[in-house]
Amino acid sequence: ELTPWGMFMAADMVVKAVMVGLAFASVVTWTIWLVKTLELAAANRAVRRTLGMLRRAPSLAAATKAVPGTSGGAAGAVVRAALAEMETSRALPAEGVKERAAIAINRIEAHAARRMVLGTGLLATIGSTAPFVGLFGTVWGIMNSFIGISKAQTTNLAVVAPGIAEALLATAIGLVAAIPAVIVYNVFSRAIANYKASPSSRITRSMSRRSST
């Protein structure tokens, strides 16, 4: 029966294992997509809320009071780090304070990015390896088809086609697993870069107003 399920059931055990592994990889891809989408949405809401407080605040000190504790995510941490550097570096020239605060901001951004990219490396792995795993299943299946042809001693299309179709199904599943993984990985890479950098420019501008209240 030349349906996807029929071809799967008729496939060799090795080809079946390849198909199951690729199907699992596809499920992992969409699970990561869902989890990271929700995580990024929550983080971006926190950033927008913190930056809104920062725009309304007359100084970084006032902004820090408006973002108490650990709220605000990366943006809140950046605000508090910038204020801490300004408080501990009052004796330095303004440019020296900005440089020290920029270092602290970069450190917080790097930490936020590391936390946010957890799991996305798996997408790159799936995207780069799934087509080759599917190709392995195809090669294995075609080899079995040729063995079956030699045993049947016929090249009748009705005998040849099912085995080749089963083998090609492995490549198709590999592409189905790989293409979304690559797209999702690229989308998240850009989204995470925007997330970690979004508070920096606003806070750097605010540091010129050193008259904290």
In short:
With 213 residues, the chain is an all-alpha fold. It is 85% helix and 0% strand.
Give an overview of the whole structure:
By secondary structure, the chain is mostly helical. The protein has one domain. It is built from seven helices and no strands. Helix 6 runs antiparallel to helix 7.
**Portion in helices:** over 70%
Count of DSSP H/I helices: 7
- Please give the largest β-sheet: none
Q: Poorly predicted ranges (pLDDT <50, ≥5 residues)?
A: none
Spell the H/E element sequence. Answer: HHHHHHH
The number of E-state strands comes to: 0
What shape does the CA trace take?
A: rod-shaped
Number of self-contained structural domains: 1
State Rg. Answer: 27 Å
Strand content: under 5%
- What oligomeric state best describes the polypeptide chains here? single chain
User: Termini separation (Å)?
Assistant: 77 Å
Mean pLDDT: 77
Structural class: mainly alpha
Descriptive labels:
mainly alpha
What's the SSE blueprint?
Blueprint: H1 4-10, H2 13-56, H3 60-66, H4 73-88, H5 94-116, H6 120-152, H7 157-206
Helix pairs in contact: 1-7, 2-3, 2-4, 2-6, 2-7, 3-4, 4-5, 4-7, 5-7, 6-7
